[in-house]
Amino acid sequence: MFRYVHTNIIAKDPNKLIAFYKKVLHCQSIDEKRDLKGEWLDKLTNLKDAHIVGEHLLLPGYGSDHPTLEIFSYDTIKDTVIAEINRPGIAHLAFEVDDVEMVLEEIIRAGGGKVGEVVTAEYPDDIEAVFVYAKDPEGNIIELQSWRNKR
């Protein structure tokens, strides 16, 4: 077997971030909460006395067995690195939505923010897409996108 399983976000406040992704981006609890520690975790993470808490959330649009968004927190968190769209590494999580502007407003009301402007881009076959980059309450970048036939 070979399949994509999850993406992990390390949060300063996992409960707040979990609530944000559930409310604003329609992720669902699948009762996979974690409270992990032990020698095996220390070996895996190469951290002494590692302790992880958090939850797996089912991403919208998928069946009940994955992929998930894993939001965890360690007892000890390193300083935050500011997320920037052109920083090497994972740049953003993307969600297809019906109304980019409406979801962006929800993100902002829920404590997130906007990175750039809402734009519309033309694609072949009379298709256009609306895009915006936003940030969740902890600064992780989220892409919102909506695809439609040109009017």
UniProtKB/TrEMBL annotation:
Record-linked PROSITE patterns: VOC
All residue ranges annotated as the VOC domain in the record: 3-147
Gene3D superfamilies linked: 2,3-Dihydroxybiphenyl 1,2-Dioxygenase, domain 1
Highest taxon listed in the record's lineage: Bacteria
Protein name as catalogued: Glyoxalase
Source species: Lacrimispora algidixylanolytica
